[in-house]
Specification:
Length: 211
Amino acid sequence: MKNKNFVVTINRVFGSGGGEIARKLGKKLGVNVYGKEVLKQLVEKFNLTETELEKIKAQKTSWWSDIVLFYNQFDSLGNPYTDFNAEVTSLQLYNAEAQLLKEISDRESCVIIGRSGFHIFRNDDNAVKILILADREECIKRVMKKTDMDEKSVEKLMDRIDISRENYTKSFAECSRYEARNYDLVINVSGMKVDEAVDFIYNYVKVKQGL
C-alpha cells in the first residue's frame, strides 16, 4: 500500500467547513486537492455552464431514461438527417466525473472533495473515505458568518444543496450519502476548530495508509 497512490475522499454537509478542512488536510499531507477543478473540466468537455451542469446533477432521474437518451444521442450522431436536440444525461456526467477522478488518482495521491468520491473509490484499498458532519445550528451560523444572508435564506440554501447532492448520489450509488457504512471515518466537527479536525483526520489517514 505504501508504494501506491492513496486517495482521501471528503464528503460533507453544507456549512460544516468540510471544504476548508479538506484543503488544509491536503496541504498537510503534501498532496493536491480536487473539487471544483473536476467540475471545470466537465464544463469544458460537455460545453455547458457550471449552473447547467449542477442542474443536471440535481435531477432525480431514472437510470433507464438516461440510458435511452444516451443511445438516442449516439444514434443521432450517426444519422445526419435526424433532427434531435442532444442533451447531456446525468449518467454521462457521472461516468465522465468518475473517469476524471480515476485518472487523477492513477497519476498522484490526492484529496477529493465531494464528487461522489466515496462511491467511485468504494473498492479501492488505497482510498480513505470520510464523511464530515456538523450540527445544523452550527452550519447555519458558519454560512451566515461567511455571507450576508439571513438565517431563513441560509436554511433554504442548505436544504436545496443537500437535497441536490443526495439525489445525485442516490441515482448512481443507490444509497444515501449519509450512510455511515460507506465510509471509513464519520466525524462530527461541531465544537472543534478547523485545525483540530484537520489534525484528527490527518493522524487517522497516516495510520490507515501506513504513512
